[in-house]
Amino acid sequence: MRRALGFLGAVLAGALAGCGVGTTGPEQAGAPASGLRRPGSVEHYAQLYFVGPYGVQAVARRVEAPAGPQEAIDLLLAGPGAAERARGLTTEVPAGRPMASAGPGTVDLYLPVPVARMNGGGLGVTQLVCTAANAQVPGGKQPPEVDVRVHEAGTPGIWTVRCTAAGSVMPVPEPSRS
User: Fold this and answer.
1) Number of structural domains the chain divides into
2) I want to staple 92 with a disulfide (CB 3.0 to 4.6 A). Which of 116, 120, 144, 170 is the partner?
3) In a domain, 33, yes or no
4) Do the bridges between strand 44-52 and strand 106-111 make them parallel or antiparallel, or are there none, so unpaired?
């Protein structure tokens, strides 16, 4: 018992004495903190999706004002920047200009070619759908609640999908009919 109390006393004394705060005052430890926003400043980012070695990957791009779906797609069409290319990011978005328009909680995405004719079809569609869904959409909805209605050029019908938090595309189930 006496031995245990002695050990406990030594541990407590060490813990109280060894908190790591010296008595010498402040010391030079490198450059001041950076990257913090000034109070009251507002920065906006568009979330774009590029193809990387492990699938589709989100990238944040700084923009002047909140980007709607078409503005975000136009940034995506410009392709990855030098730093993004250095990380191995590319694009599978087809030639031509996909168009997007937004309504409350929805985006209508008009593809310039049918998905079947797109190189890497599914990856390009995922890039477009997730970029459009993560843009500023009226109604305040955020993915995965934003419905993206895809219109393929030369193909009848519209199919509706959503972008998941993981950056993949999931079909929206048809409402059940009772």
Assistant:
1) 1
2) 120
3) no
4) unpaired
Facing residues of 47 across strands? 60
CA-CA-CA-CA torsion sign (108, 111, 114, 119): negative
Measured CA to CA, the distance from residue 155 to residue 133 in angstroms comes to: 22
Read off the pTM: 0.74
pLDDT of residue 99: 95
Torsion angles phi and psi, residue 146, rounded to 5? -80, 125
Residue 84 lies in domain: 44-171
Total residue count of the chain as it appears in this document: 178
Q: What stretch of H or E contains 129? A: helix 121-133
Contacts 24+ apart (CB under 8 A), 18-26: none
In a domain? residue 141: yes
Can you tell me whether residue 17 is helix, strand or coil?
helix
With respect to residue 30, please indicate whether it lies within any of the assigned structural domains.
no
| C-beta neighbour count of 101 within 10 angstroms | 14
Tens digit of pLDDT for each residue in 85-135? 999 999 998 778 899 999 999 999 999 888 888 776 689 999 999 999 999
Positive or negative: CA dihedral 134, 163, 107, 113: positive
Residue of higher predicted confidence among 4 and 107: 107
